[in-house]
Amino acid sequence: MKRAYIFKNKSEKDGKLMAVENTIKDFKKAIAIQFRLPEENLQLFAANGCEIDDVRVIRDDEKVYLSLECEKKLTNCDKVNNSIESMIVADNKERVVSDWIKLNVGGKHFVTSRSTLLAKEPLSMLARMFADDNNMYLMNPSAKDETGAYLIDRSPEYFEPILNYLRHGEVILDKHINPKGVLEEAVFYGLDSMIPQLNQLIDEPLNSSSNNQSLTRMDVIRLVIMTPTTSELRFQGVNLAGADLNRLDLRHINFKYACLSRCNLSGANLSHCCLERADLSHANLEGAQLLGVKALCANMEGAILKGCNMEDPIGSRAVMEGVNLKGANLDGSNMAGVNLRVATLKNANLQNCDLRAAVLAGADLECCDLSGSDLHEANLRGANLKDAAFELMLTPLHMSQTIR
Q1: 46 three-class SS
Q2: What is the reported pTM?
């Protein structure tokens, strides 16, 4: 059974908590007994000033105000009218303050408590609209729609983070929400404490871009799929450090000046890619396809290139002139015809490599292990062969290959 708070007048003093009877007649009779009033002259009013003629409209724990009916005595009528006028407020002058407020922001409805709008930012526009002074709003709110919600002509998408901030004091934005839009709304509503947090969120992407965060495998796959085969995919200067790109088809991609340091490219197809001056230091390219690759002055120090294939049956040669392969592991790679002119291969492992007709003129091969390699018709003129190992050579190294 529902219950209601019964008051003699709007001051809400000396009220009684009563159970709501089955009919309005029974309910009035019970009230008349409790307040010792004549039942026939009793009238009940809701908080909005409307007379109650059916108990079904009374909500649980609702406040009900009673008055004596006056049909003949003017003085009694005046008292009733004054009582009703104190509860009903004209739309153009006064409004009854409610604990729950419904807002229509840009066509979307929001329901919140008055304390939420007042507590966090008492000087904001929303707080002034719904703050009360003797049960009256300090600032006249906007018009209402057909549902009774106050109309606010602003973006609902940006208002939702505003309302949530007033509820818990933290700025939390979904990924698709632009913090700049929320900032504009915070300035409009006068939420001064929210503005620093939003400025910090706006600055974070700028700081991230300055840190040059690397792309991931999924970023690369998405771009490869979206790019037509007739178009050139350019990763020029892009940071892919540490990315796992193993076994991907990356043919004909421009990686000029890109950072691929410690990147996993094992089994990847990099044929005819441009790796000019790219950073591949300590990257893993084991078993990668490097047919016709252009790696002029690339940094491959400490990289793993075991079992790589650089020989193109069509005849295009890999150009790795001036590349830094210091300490790299190229064990068992097919490097026939590769251009390694003036390359740095100090302490590199070139065991069992196919270097037929390779150009190693002026290359630094100090302490390089060439055991078991095939250097047939390779050009080693002017190369630095100090402490290089040539054990178990498949073909003898001729003097003409090494003399400038």
Answers
A1: coil
A2: 0.49
